[in-house]
Amino acid sequence: MRRILVTIMAAVMVMTITACGAEESQSSKEEQTSASAVEEVTENEKEENQESDTSTTEPDTVSETDMDIVLRSGHPTYYGSVAASHVVWDDVEKNRIHFADKNYGYNDNPILTMDAYRNSDIIRQVIINFTNFTDSTTVPLDDAIQIASSYMPYDVMDQYYEFSGSKLLVPDESRKDDDSYYVISYRLTDEGSKAYYAKEHEYSGSIDVIIQVNNETTKSIDITFGTPRWMSSLDKNNYSKEEWLCDLYDYR
Question: pTM of the full predicted structure?
Fold first, then answer.
């Protein structure tokens, strides 16, 4: 009887030990599984952080060219605001832009020059000087016309102006290497003139666009009131006029 009891107790102990071993083995497996899961989550977080860092990294910015500066979005036009010109170009390198309300020296090489009456906010001249561009931009006539169009005050022109003609001034054979000038002009309509004398607006009698070209490359664009005096005496200055039709409204 005693032997039977001893045998039973021994069997119970073996079963208990086996069960404890199984529980420990299961616990160890669970701990390993948990550790693996933690490592997997950590690895996933690293990958997500790397992807996030990649997506938020700013791309290398391309440096702004002089042409980009001249054609900045929202730039003022002829008859535009002097104050607005500062908002658009105040961050540009000193003396590269000549503002209408400041004085400058003659030794500067501005890419853009504006003028206005004293204490006036209306821009009354715009000169784009491509020869001063640092990136040696070559501007064909068609591109120059499009650029000039971007500076035209079409809202004002719609109300007060009309197309009055265009022409090409070319040097005579004696000065064949000199520049040619493409001129496009608009004048106040009769109603626009009446409105001026009635002091309904302050706009000038004409808007004249002068594009200076040499060897099929544009040197400058000048948007202003009137043309240089020499253009009224072509023979004396060894120039002649040729037919050339261009209306900037076609490029609007």
Answer: 0.75
